[in-house]
Amino acid sequence: NSVSTILAQDCNNLYQRMLHTNLEDFGIDKAMDVDVKLPPGQVNLHNCYVLLGCIEALLDLKMSSIKQDDVKGLGVLFEMHERLTAILSGRPKAPKKDKNEFFIRLIEKRTPHISVDSLASFLDVLREGDFASSQELSNVQSTQGSAGRKLARNTSFRVFILQQCNAILERAIEGKKHHARVILACGGIVQNKAVVENVLRLEGCNTALSKMGVPLFRTCETFVLAACNNAALSGSENLVLAACTAIRNVVTIAISSEPHIIEEVVAGETGGATAGIEGLGRVTPHTQFYSHLHHLLVGLVKGEFHKEAEIVTNAMFDFCSCYPDELGKAVAALALQTCKE
User: Which uninterrupted H or E stretch holds 226?
Assistant: First the structure.
């Protein structure tokens, strides 16, 4: 309709204008006051977060209908987002008991403005290493194709997308816990289910996680295994940490409310990956999924990613605890091996 058309035009105009601006045009630079102890710093910090959300919303807008000639624009927006994030991360940290704690939590406990659908599309792009297929690239200028590959393979951009996914998943996990507490507080009465779901929806906790869970797991698995085979890769530490955190979050979501993620990850596999893993019996979707986690852990240990290996190990223990009949022996063997090391 006319309203949506006008809105789309306004958003596109804003996008085009943003491509020709920089942070200084908004009065934002490294020298600005972003200390929340004083009102001027609070105002500046608030403006920074508003702009950050605007950039993320434009990234989401363009990813929802990506065209090859938009890739360079996405790169410009991401560079601005990266500069702004660096300024925010370098601001003075207030004490834990600071009187402005409420304000700090309000601006830092934020959900990304990029939707689950767009993040799922970005994950496919990262895994494939480009924004378009080779056939599509043959129909555009080579400079546009190289821009797509450059952004898709940029480690900072990969970490940024994974962090956005983790922020949404972690908020969803908190929402599940909140849901459970409310149900218990209501005495487990079924009639309150609709009320609880409406509350969670208003809080932004209900998202289409199933659309993001499978591509997120597969993309992170690809990144982790690649980094383990090439531990000297520049910037791989932050990428592997973000990827392992995402894998743990996907496992948590899968065992709590989205079990079909497990079946989709292992769909079409024959079960050969489970061979040689101590404690695994018959081939099931759960033992197949466990084999993915097992191979990730082996790679992390060999690559000496110790902190990341601990994250995956904890995810494995959580996963096994939900399926003791199928994975009890495997987790016992893993626990014994962990104690020996």
Answer: helix 209-229
| Residue bearing tokens 């890739």 | 71
Q: What is the dihedral of CA 132, 77, 61, 252, to 10 degrees?
A: 80
The answer to pTM > 0.85 is no
Instruction: Annotate 261-276 with b (16+ C-beta within 10 A) or e (fewer).
Output: bbebbbeeeeeebbee
Q: Encode pLDDT of 5-20 as tens digits.
A: 888 888 888 988 999 9
**How far apart, in Å, are the Cα atoms of 281 and each of 263, 278, 312, 327?**
18, 9, 21, 8
Nearest to 116, CA basis, from 74, 176, 52, 164: 164
Using left for φ > 0, alpha for ψ between -120 and 50, and beta otherwise, residue 22 falls in beta
Nearest partner of 158 among 211, 216, 72, 225, judged by Cα: 216
Structure tokens at 196: 């609880």
User: Could you tell me if 208 and 117 are in contact, meaning their C-beta atoms sit under 8 angstroms apart?
Assistant: yes
Q: What is the DSSP string of 164-218?
A: HHHHHHHHHHHHHHHHHHHHHHTTT-GGGHHHHHHHHHHTT----HHHHHHHHHH
The count of C-alpha atoms lying within 13 angstroms of the C-alpha of 332, restricted to the half-sphere facing its C-beta, is: 9
Q: Of 199, 293, 213, 202, which Cα lies nearest the Cα of 246?
A: 213
**How wide is the angle at C-alpha 179 spanned by C-alphas 173 and 185, nearest 5°?**
140
